[in-house]
Amino acid sequence: MKPTITLPPFPDSIENWWWNATKEKWPDWEEEKLLNSLRQEIVAQSDRFNKDRSFEAGSYGSRDLSIFAYGNFYFSRTWMAMNYAVAETLSFCNWSAPRKGPIRILDLGSGTGASGLATLHLLRNFGIKNPIELTAWDYSGKSLSFLKNLQRGCSELWPESRVVTNRYDLRSFANHDQKQKFDLVLMGYSFNEILQDQEICDRDLWLLECCQLLKRSGFLIITEPAEMKICKNLQESASMLNKRNKSLHIHAPYLNGLHCPMAEKESKFFSHEVRRYRPVKTVEILNRPLRLEIREVKFGLSILSPTFPNHEVSGFRTFRIISPIKKRKGTISFLGMGSDGQEYLYEFQRRGLLKEEMNNLLFLERGDIMHLEGGEIKEEKKRVRLNSIGSLRGAFVPRIGVSI
Ligand SMILES: C[S@@+](CC[C@H](N)C(=O)[O-])C[C@H]1O[C@@H](n2cnc3c(N)ncnc32)[C@H](O)[C@@H]1O
Fold it and tell me: Which CATH superfamily is domain 318-398 in?
């Protein structure tokens, strides 16, 4: 199976920028002391993201050590998650850059810029030449100044781009008198923090305000941590948004503008992607004694736009993989969400498969969008049994390329 799109790996120059800036901040500290201080902070942040879940301006955006811990450890991962999401917007949801003039991108809860800068880098990597203006909003002024320094320090990665930052508490964003419209509005792992403790209706209203910032051809792209409640909240809000505002369409994670059915019922799987990932060296080193999960990039996703999604009624034949790929004695199987919004089990009999075909199936990841072409394929009670992979095609199968 070949990827349908190759994503650039996380740039070495950014990894080096974070590590060098950290060493420069504490020039007298031995490397081990520096690593251990960062590790302590990484554990505190991991607890904050996963357990305590209390966020305010001073949480982790006001101290240098917190920012360096995030930069050296988490930055490359939220960067990669946004890479997948923007790649889908470009290659599967058919977003295209304006024919002339600048591309305007707004990054809400930008922090030090992982999501916004990842988007600049990806657009340049795909050969998009328009000038780009990235507007970044966050309530951490310190994070925003890191973003600017990083953008300047690695300017070769995003030629002809400009960054404008503004310090805002985005909770009161609904009162904002923003007139400018954007081609892409991003929220990388920030929606859950900004709207923490808000009532569902306030969350939905807030999101509606965000969508007012989109051009008619614009896209709102949200990535979130792959945690059940957070992903469910996101999918509920996206569904609500689409119900209230019929001219705003859901492009992902499901097809044909359909809502995530898992948000409405108790499903074993909740909407998120799990991508294999080879962490950068600094992350490996920091993680040695911590043993956090670093070999996967997991994230929840929503992509919304005033434009119409591709509409192809093909039931179980076009689907997104929503479970791990299971290799059993007699079968290789996974669950997929069909383009009709139904959940199907896809089951391949191993006895009919060559080794290479089995490897092709095991190469698939949760989040890939696939299509079963032509031929007679039987579906019975939401179960699709196959003896070969001859008819299986990738519709969106992104993989990270190798560094040169
Ligand atoms: C997990 S970080 C994500 C940073 C970045 N988007 C990324 O992709 O790595 C969440 C960001 O949301 C910001 N944030 C949280 N609540 C906020 C609020 N009420 N107003 C503005 N920014 C907020 C935090 O300062 C932090 O930078």
Answer: Nucleic acid-binding proteins (2.40.50.140)
